[in-house]
Specification:
Number of strands: 2
Distance between the termini: 35 Å
Strand content: 5-15%
Number of helices: 5
Order of helices and strands: HHHEEHH
Helix content: 40-55%
Radius of gyration: 18 Å
Largest sheet: 2 strands, antiparallel
Amino acid sequence: MAITYVPDESIIEQAAQSDPVRRALAEEAQRLLPIAKRIAYQEHATEFGDSLHIEAGTRPGTKSTKGLRRPYVRVIADSEDAEAREYGTSQKRKTAILARAVSEMGG
């Protein structure tokens, strides 16, 4: 039976908070943003496309069993109809713009 060494959580948190990790997350979001905008404009969802932007921060770790704080970078649409456009409603068809953009990126 092999013994696996699990490092102290503080080391993992330091690695997650490192500049290379944050940079990699930001680069992914920078790649995703123009794809999402293109899809939005193709769908004639101009307000949605115009509202797309990148948001970065650190998750507080309150839901993590170990309290691990992790950085995040995400593409956000904050137009009034963003949720309805992405997921659909009884009055609006689902466009899944962000989901399609992620799929196009290969994720």
